[in-house]
């Protein structure tokens, strides 16, 4: 289950490490490598608490199961787009979150610091106008992630990280973003396997979508891999009887959901 879940997620590298001052060399789908209090990456690719040097003061660990649950929830309504001169980002709230940190960077560079912090469990939107102190450009392309955190004894601990979103500027001469996703079927009854039929409707018909160097143009995830799994090209495989949701997501976060009933 864990392996299949990871295959359906976008590439994620370089979670923030405590005391890091420089980003490590990463690709376009990298995760930030900026300092983050009280967290460090574990071997499975998630974040776990970095123990306080004083005995007895270590933060409680985050299980991989909880991490996956939070990330599915965070991604349910995540999307990004231009609103005036800012990048507007939306996500679904995490019940145990104390707030959310938004990392942003030009697509050709690494994440190196938090762009915006949204405090409070119920925050589900934020605007980014500057990255590293510089105003963003409508001609450039950017990438954004949202990280949910909780506060334990005043220390920040990350409990879920969204998918990377890549967004072309609305004045970019070559590239545009997904406006919507068209599905052949919104409900699927699954016995063995089936290919999901989905296509992207572009915001500007005459422009191109961002290249695949930014990541897959469509990403697929299952809400319950014990019932049905989905691979990177959208092929569904039945596991056992039950009902789950498949999310089909474009690079900028625009998504559609499919209800899958496994017979």
Description of the structure:
The protein folds into two domains: 160 residues, Immunoglobulin-like; 88 residues, Immunoglobulin-like (Sandwich), CATH 2.60.40. It is built from two helices and 23 strands. β3 and β4 form a beta hairpin. Strands 5, 6, 10, 11 and 12 form a five-stranded antiparallel beta sheet that branches. With 263 residues, the chain is mainly beta. Helices cover 7% and strands 43% of the residues.
DSSP summary, beta strand count: 23
Shape: flat
Structural class call reads mainly beta
Please summarize the sheet with the most strands: 5 strands, antiparallel
Q: Which band does the percent of strand residues land in?
A: 35-45%
Task: State the domain count.
Answer: 2
Briefly note the CATH topology name of the largest domain. Immunoglobulin-like
Helix content: under 10%
Quickly count the helices. Answer: 2
CATH superfamily of the largest domain: Immunoglobulins
The first-level CATH class name of the largest domain: Mainly Beta
Q: How do the SSEs run, as a string of H and E?
A: HEEHEEEEEEEEEEEEEEEEEEEEE
Low-pLDDT runs of 5+ residues are 1-56
Which key terms come to mind for this protein?
disordered N terminus, mainly beta, five-stranded antiparallel sheet, four-stranded mixed sheet, 2 helices, 2 domains, 263 residues, Immunoglobulin-like, single chain
